[in-house]
Design a protein that fits this description.
heterodimer, A: alpha+beta, elongated, B: 5-stranded mixed sheet, two-stranded antiparallel sheet, globular
């Protein structure tokens, strides 16, 4: 592996070229049209207008309302009001978009389908993973409103949202004219007295924190711990023989405190290696709690830490650092593939 | 252009250079490639929420599973992957030729989109290029005589788009369906005068393994809701007769977006000639939630 050289503080894309998330309301003097404009990450020097759909986002921002549109001819309702002509009767008087016949939608609806939970996210959204996004049917609407889904109970897991799950629309406290100004939570997580409330803000709900606690220490876990530590030490010791595994952890530096019900140890990622240290790690970047040490043996045999976190068998203190866990999960396959190739030779 | 009579020889090239986009946060390429593709989602209502190809195809898969909860079993998916992994070894251009994938390894691989599919069920965004030569009758025979290879004729083509927006009834994209695949294959079959029973080779755009199964159902090889029959009723080779993704598909062959389906067509032609088979079906899909489908029926000719 070639040595990686870098100039600290220098970036190929300078920070000043990456726009902050911003929005503004512009009034055009010619026809006094009110328009929402937002910064657009794809074209860093541009403001992108919501154009004719501005009334939808202005209603969200200012009035905490979700607007739909009813075709004046065939009476069909769509939400969001996404096109300029009626998709059913092809009436093209543009009244769907101008929202002259815009209607306020109810703020309780149901999920059109089971929403996917993104665990491995793209660059822009990695720090939010795992997150859910689905579609909700409101009132008479034939179309589904794309929407982020959240649970007040902590970690978003399969089963919380399903096709047909009744949901409540909740609004962000700070609304900037984006489709993330509103989201859905399961109706049964909303206190009964708030279920009919329109314009419900996120601050009105109680959100469970996702802090990781210390593992429960047992004699059985203590007995397993030495075997787990030995397996992990042997496993990460194979990284120097695996170019793929070295690539997996290239340019990545982390001090990870691993806590189990049988004892604790540290994993120090640096210079394309992982060093195992016993006991406490001072000022760790990441804490990984795996109550049952045998799960770590499973990890060295190809089981996924990500999946373990998803089913509650493990936890991390910083969900925004799931990328590190993904890197740890890549190691087994990389080491195995390089070993298989060496075996063929 | 050839069938329309405008040209009698067309040279078609597709290429992809996706991995030039590098994510400086994760120090890897994939997240930024995924992000770049995600720019094509609706900029007002979807993009900011984290929409990507993966989670949108997952919506299709999960809404199918809402309707058919006993289909798309992990054991069947693992077996299809094992078969395609084996088949990729016979494709000199496959990019994941040396990997051994077993149902157990699929089961243990991490979730990408939960509970839709796992890491070993996803295609690999990659780089590559492909070239196809389309020739009119007369010209094709001359080329084939020179090369000593039989021609492969395009007997039928079909393309279909579904509405972008999802909803509860038409004209919206419907949950649980990939109607574009169904309509595209139907049009191609009708033009060729054949049906699924006549097809020997399928080269299918397998963006994600469960979607492969749904598409096989939409194209008529198994009933909707019984896509697992591909393995359980021995439809798919080597257990059955239909050779599915002998190239290894996009999962093992590699998904170079600018030319993947040309790669599929290359493989279909190769298998028809190598194995002396009659008909192949080449499939492509795209758009944010598999709203676009394309299909072509190929027939092996004689010199």
């Amino acid at each position: 592996m070639e040595k990686v050289m870098r100039r600290p503080g220098d970036y190929v894309i300078p920070h000043e070229a990456i726009p902050e998330v911003m929005s503004r309301i512009t009034v055009f003097p010619e026809d006094k049209f009110v328009c929402v404009e937002r910064t657009e990450p794809m074209f860093t020097t541009y403001w992108a207008s919501a154009g004719e759909l501005s009334p939808f986002f202005l209603a969200v921002m200012k009035e905490k309302k979700i607007l739909g549109a009813r075709c004046p001819k065939c009476k069909m309702v769509i939400c969001p009001p996404y096109m300029t002509r009626c998709p059913v009767c092809q009436n093209d008087d543009s009244s769907l978009v101008s929202l002259e016949t815009g209607i306020e939608m109810p703020q309780v609806g149901y999920m059109l389908g089971t929403p996917p939970i993104t665990v491995f996210a793209n660059a822009r959204f990695a720090r939010y993973a795992p997150f859910g996004r689905g579609r909700v049917i409101l009132g008479e609407s034939q179309s589904a409103l794309p929407i982020q889904v959240f649970t007040t109970t902590g970690f978003l897991k399969p089963g919380i949202f399903k096709a047909g799950t009744k949901v409540k629309i909740v609004f962000r406290k700070v609304r900037m004219g984006f489709s993330t100004d509103y989201f859905a939570v399961p109706l049964d997580e909303v206190p009964e007295k708030l279920r009919d409330k329109k314009g419900l803000e996120e601050t009105a709900l109680k959100w469970k924190s996702m802090e990781v606690g210390d593992p429960q220490v047992t004699d059985a876990f203590k007995k397993q711990f030495p075997k787990a530590l030995q397996a992990v030490t042997r496993f990460v010791g194979a990284i120097p023989k695996s170019p793929r595994a070295q690539r997996d952890v290239a340019n990545w530096t982390r001090k990870i405190q691993v806590k189990t019900g049988g004892g604790k140890f540290g994993l120090l990622l640096d210079k394309q290696r992982i060093k195992v240290v016993r006991g406490k790690v001072p000022r760790p970047d990441l804490v990984l709690v795996v109550e049952d040490p045998t799960h770590l043996i499973g990890w060295t045999n190809g089981d996924s830490l990500v999946n373990l976190i998803r089913i509650g068998g493990a936890g991390i203190n910083n969900l925004q650092d799931m990328e590190t866990v993904f890197k740890l999960d890549r190691l087994h396959r990389s080491i195995r593939r390089d070993a298989e190739e060496r075996g063929k030779k | 252009m050839v069938a329309g009579g405008r040209y009698d020889l067309v040279f078609c090239v597709g290429a992809e250079k996706a991995t030039d986009t590098y994510d400086f946060m994760s120090e890897t390429q994939t997240p930024e490639v995924v992000q770049t593709i995600a720019w094509s989602w609706d900029p007002l209502f979807e993009r900011d929420q984290g929409a990507t190809a993966a989670d949108s195809y997952a919506e299709v898969i999960l809404s199918y599973m809402d309707q058919y909860p006993s289909d798309l079993k992990m054991a069947v998916r693992g077996e299809i992957l094992r078969i395609m992994c084996e088949q990729a070894k016979n494709n000199p251009n496959a990019q994941r030729r040396d990997e051994i994938v077993t149902p157990e390894r699929v089961e243990h691989s991490p979730w990408i989109i939960e509970p839709a599919f796992k890491k070993l069920e996803t295609c690999v965004y990659t780089e590559g290029a492909c070239c196809l030569i389309f020739a009119a009758e007369g010209v094709a025979e001359e080329i084939c005589k020179d090369s000593g290879q039989p021609p492969v004729w395009i007997e039928g083509v079909g393309f279909a788009n579904e509405p972008y927006w999802w909803g509860i009834k038409h004209p919206h994209k419907l949950p649980g369906r990939i109607e574009s695949d169904h309509l595209a294959a139907k049009a191609a079959y009708e033009m060729a005068g054949v049906g699924p029973k006549d097809i020997n080779v399928v080269e299918l755009h397998d963006a994600f393994l469960p979607q492969l199964e749904i598409t096989m159902a939409e194209m008529g090889f198994v009933p909707m809701g019984h896509a697992d029959d591909l393995i359980e009723k021995k439809i798919m080779a080597p257990h059955g007769k239909v050779l599915v993704n002998p190239s290894g598909g996009l999962i093992y062959g590699g998904h170079f977006v600018g030319g993947s389906n040309m790669f599929s067509a290359w493989s279909a032609r190769r298998e028809l000639i190598r194995r002396g088979l009659d008909y192949a079906l080449v499939h492509g899909t795209g758009a944010s939630s598999a709203q676009y489908g394309g299909a072509a029926v190929l027939k092996r000719g004689v010199i």
